Fold:
Amino acid sequence: MEKIRVGVIGCGSIAQHRHLPEYGMNKRVEIVAVCDKNEERAVRVANEYGAKSYTDYKELIESGTVDAVSVCTPNYLHAEISIYALNQGLHVLCEKPMATSVEEAEEMIEAGKRSGKKLMIGHNQRFVSSHQKARELIKNGEIGRVYSFRTTFGHGGPAQWSVEGKESWFFKKEEAIIGAMGDLGVHKTDLLRYLLDEEFTEVGAFVEENAKDYGDTDDNAVCVLKTKSGIIGTLAASWAYMGKEDNSTIIYGEKAILRLEEDPTYSLIVQYANGEVVNYQLGKIQTNDEGGQRNTGVIDEFIHCIVEDVVSPVPGEEGLKSLSVVLAALKSSRTKKITEI
Structure:
């Protein structure tokens, strides 16, 4: 089988700890190029993987040496680079959030349709075993009607793991556009849409810039969300959790409560209304904590959809729906009003 030739654009932490190692583990992939505006970093990473280094993403895309690219750049470049690559006939895996506006996201989707190439958004929480099991239990009626939920994704922020620390683009509004809500909140809007299998219609949010004095992006948010069928719950996204990372979700149903990634041993705990408790050990979720850089499944799914020519498991349309919830939350915080999605 011919290998898929891959280029990675942006050589920061997400590329070094997730994309590149996972491409390296996939037997159907050849890493041939990397790109970063920091030439020293690009050369170092390229040497590690036996690839060619670039500092200009257009040069990499136009080189004719790659079939697909990962876009791992600051948020404001996601749409620009993805559209350029798709227009040049390359498959694209873009980090989340896929874009910084609805208009950008729609342009990406249109570029994918025109090119006939795959566009996938890196929402890795869909591929976590406990989340997939929870979706199955909800879908088959095991917990009855869902009433409410509580989901959280918080840690100390990119300063702890970004290659540039406190100088990272994550803290610069002109490059990030969206801070913790784009970094963490969009993971949870996507997860909840995946678990509940329905769309959100309204959001009320408090989004603050109160945790980091070295940046001007949002870093601490709490949202109240409502789905089309009337399920209500809360979502927190924060770079202000200075202790242990929290990446947990609780689903409150008619017949049972699902506790996801809350317990250190059991990744899913089902507490039934009759008092019965079922514990599942399904493997740990990936994390930025020490020793937590596990295979997310995103790369394998991306390569699979290219090789088998099947629909991307997280296409641009899904990325846009999850992004739209975040954008509505930011609007709600600005206007101090409940916002329709």
Notes: The first strand starts at residue 4 and ends at 9. The chain has a mean pLDDT of 96. The CA atoms of residues 267 and 284 lie 7 Å apart.
